[in-house]
Amino acid sequence: MSYDTKAGPRDYGKMHLFLSYVAAASLVLLLLEAFGIIADGYSLIGTTLGGLSIIVMYGTRNSDEWIASLWSAGANAGFIGAMAWLVFFPFIEGFYDGLTGLDSHQDFPSGSAAIAALACFVIAFNLKRIRGY
Amino acid sequence: MKNRLKVLRAERDWSQAELAVQLDVSRQAVNAIETGKHDPSLPLAFRIARLFDMPIEEIFDDET
Of the candidates B63, B61, B64, B7, which has an alpha carbon nearest to the alpha carbon of residue B34? Predict the structure, then answer.
């Protein structure tokens, strides 16, 4: 059997899958930094790695239909995660504070929405990849 | 959806990578289809059927 050895869509798919691990690693860095387990400053590495990974993954998302389905699952979950973090959870928190009369601080800072979205993306992407849903 | 892709590929002594090249998808996509984690689109199912020279319904079983 003869092969077409030039770089093609399937090679971008391999890159896409590798970058999903990079995105997961950047998420771990961001979470460790957020919980104070590692020193401040690692978030810059995590943000840069995560941001670049997602940008390149966006560019390679249609390399084949399975990769597209993984991206779609992750992107859907990321969108829902961001909306929940920015709208739904603060609404519930405000409602609860109103009921109990406790005027606590904002527990869902909008600055963390990107981490929530990335976490939802990575979880959904890898669930779909490993389990098929 | 169940399919006979793995059996058909083995009968021809092709690796997943070789089949992936012929279908113009990633090796991981072939693996996902074989293990039932991904149902191929209609165009890809037709490509698979043409490659193995079989009707789609003899490769894929939608009743399970």
Answer: B7
